[in-house]
Design a protein that fits this description.
5-stranded antiparallel sheet, 50% helix, Alpha-Beta Plaits, 4-stranded antiparallel sheet, 22% strand
Length: 304
């Protein structure tokens, strides 16, 4: 009888301990994990609300035409949201480990060794995060900017509108609708095509026998009419101007026409000016080969 009672007591004791643990630490672990999920979603929702508030001021205009401060705030809100979520998950993971019986103080030394190993093995990730930090703090580009990015190991540049900027990656949507994800640490050079203001440059080829002064007058008239156009004028910062002869060839002369535009609108303005120039020269009986067009972006206050 004594032996049977002892065996019964031993079988009940582990069951009782497990039940007590589930009601205390086990329940706390479940609540912590649930709280982490809910808190993470709340942080993401709050971050989206902030970015939507920033974008609300541009709902009646093009997303590309926004202030540099708004672009920076948008990118900064996305990064802060990501960092806060990461910190919440790390702290909850540490709390869960403590309730599972792991001595956090005893994990300091192994964590240091593991961190050193990861530091050597994850140099690219660290490089991406550091590069992303400087991209955001230096305001190199932000949400909505049109950029051209040269990437390490790739001969083709990533070009399009910036859709997302984090500490690790930059996401760009191309004109074909493709989303290009570029690790920040692999970015060699960034050409921002919508920084403060942009410039549309149209090189107009005319026959070498044409009267250059007459052609210049035609182009100036085209620029003046374009600046008076109610549809095109909101995109222009000033009246398009004629720079003069850009280059000489055997059978033609290239005359350059430029226009300062709102950020990201140089392509639209350039296309419109080419149509107007072609029509004006045709009316005057002047032949014109396919125009060579390029675009350039300068910061405000830069020499023209």
């Amino acid at each position: 009888m004594t032996v049977l009672a002892t065996q019964t007591t031993l079988s009940i004791a582990p069951t009782s301990d497990l039940s007590n643990w589930l009601r205390s630490n086990g329940l706390e672990i479940v609540l912590l994990i649930l709280g982490a999920v809910l808190l993470g979603r709340f942080i993401a929702w709050f971050g989206n609300r902030i970015t939507q508030q920033i974008d609300r001021g541009f709902q009646h205009s093009d997303a590309l035409v926004r202030s540099e401060a708004a672009k920076h705030r948008h990118a900064l809100a996305q990064v802060i949201t990501w960092v806060v979520q990461a910190l919440v998950y790390i702290l909850i993971a540490i709390s869960v480990l403590q309730r599972l019986g792991f001595a956090i103080a005893g994990l300091v030394a192994p964590a240091a060794v593991l961190g050193a190993a990861l530091g050597f093995g994850a140099q690219r990730i660290v490089q991406d995060i550091l590069a992303g930090f400087f991209i955001i703090t230096e305001r190199q580009y932000g949400f909505g900017d049109v950029v051209r990015i040269a990437v390490t190991g790739s001969s083709v540049e990533a070009e399009g509108a910036v859709e997302d900027v984090t500490l690790r990656v930059t996401k760009v949507r191309s004109v074909n609708g493709e989303v290009i994800t570029v690790p920040n640490g692999q970015i060699i050079k960034v050409t921002n095509l919508s920084k403060d203001w942009a410039r549309a440059v149209v090189d107009v080829p005319v026959p070498a026998t044409a009267d250059i002064n007459h052609v210049n007058e035609i182009l100036r008239d085209v620029g003046a009419k374009a600046f008076q156009d109610r549809r095109l004028k909101p995109l222009l910062l000033d009246e398009p101007s004629v720079m003069g002869v850009e280059s000489l060839e055997v059978d033609q002369v290239n005359i350059r026409m430029v226009a300062r535009t709102l950020p990201g609108k140089q392509f639209q303005v350039g296309r419109d000016l080419r149509v107007r120039v072609a029509a004006a020269l045709r009316r005057e009986g002047l032949g014109m080969a396919a125009a060579k067009t390029s675009t350039a972006t300068l910061e405000a206050g830069a020499p023209q």
